[in-house]
Structures are given as C-alpha cells and as structure tokens.
Amino acid sequence: MPTYDYRCEACGHEFSVILSITEHESGKITCPQCKGDKVTQLMSVFTPKTSRKS
Hints:
This protein has one domain (about 5-40). Helix content is about 10%, strand content about 25%. The protein contains one helix and three strands. The chain has one helix at about 20-25; strands spanning about 5-10, 15-20, 40.
C-alpha cells in the first residue's frame, strides 16, 4: 500500500500514513497529534528499491 505524507493545518504536525487507494480517496484523514481533520497532502518522492548496485 502507498504511503502518503500530510501536514495538519491546525497544529502544523507533519505525518505519514499508509493507506489503500480507496481509503486515500475517501479523504477522511485526521492528524494523529491533535485529531484535527484539516490536513493537506504533501508532495512525496518515490524512490524505488533495486538489487542493482551502482
């Protein structure tokens, strides 16, 4: 499942959540620190893991 990064607009806490695509699309994300529901999704970077050494 994908990991999504969020920032709470109420307290400024940044956190990551592992969600299914269905859960993510529901938009019902709350801050784990203050339980606020006004959160903004942050831009995240995808880094694939490979067995190849460079």
